[in-house]
Amino acid sequence: MTIKIASVTTLALFILTACSTLPGKPELTAEEMKERLMSSPVSVLPVHEPVMLFERTKARAIANSVIASLAASAAGNMAHTSSPQQLQSNMEISREFGQQLHGVLPDGDRVSAGRGIDRAFAGKLAEYFANRESGEAGANGTVVFRVGASLWELGYESFLASNDYQLNYRLTLRVQAQGEESLQTLKTIICAGSSAHQMPLEQWQAENYREVDLAGHEIVEHCFDLALLQLGLGAVPVDGNE
After folding, report:
1. Confidence (pTM)
2. Are 112 and 52 contacting, i.e. CB atoms less than 8 angstroms apart?
3. What backbone torsions phi and psi does residue 101 show, to the nearest 5 degrees?
4. Cα(31)–Cα(133) distance, rounded to whole angstroms?
5. 42 beta partners
6. pLDDT digits (tens, 9 = 90+) for 72-97
7. Contact 59, 165 (CB under 8 A)
8. pLDDT at 17
9. What ranges in the chain are assigned the alpha helix state H?
């Protein structure tokens, strides 16, 4: 995916954003992380299978409710009823069946457009560390960067109160050191949030998901700046130089 550059939008488009390290994981302080990066070769792993955009829509939620309701009703009608107690038991079983079925039905679809937020983030990191990417992922002492995305979706903001959708994301950056036998996790950084800018689904989808691409660019820049702070490297200078 080629992410288009936003012309006016800024980091103010995004709210509920956090960048933190997971508790219970061995980690270095920002200053220690900076020293390690300055003295070690770096390898930013490419993302070969970029995450696809997931659409969690009201239409699918309504369809799932109808399917679950019809299936529950059919299951209840097929059960043998010989007493009021049996009827009550059948109704409870039918309701439980409907709830379980609704829980396993997919609540959205993945689309090919708007994909690759994780690949773009990894590419931004690789560009920044290009002059230090002298190591290989399997070489001892090399600091390895792994980027993943556990959430990248367009989801409805409210089922009843609004027709707007927002872009939700969760990017994870794992910084690891290659040892003789295994990788040691130095830091796990999470950048997650939801776009403050909301609009109907059709506007997000217009022009081959143009607004998603614009927002994706801002998300990458935002998470990149936060990652540099966590790594003790500060913000990216305006002129693009270190």
Report:
1. 0.69
2. yes
3. -65, -40
4. 20
5. 143
6. 555 555 555 556 665 555 556 555 54
7. no
8. 46
9. 30-39, 58-78, 84-104, 117-128, 201-230
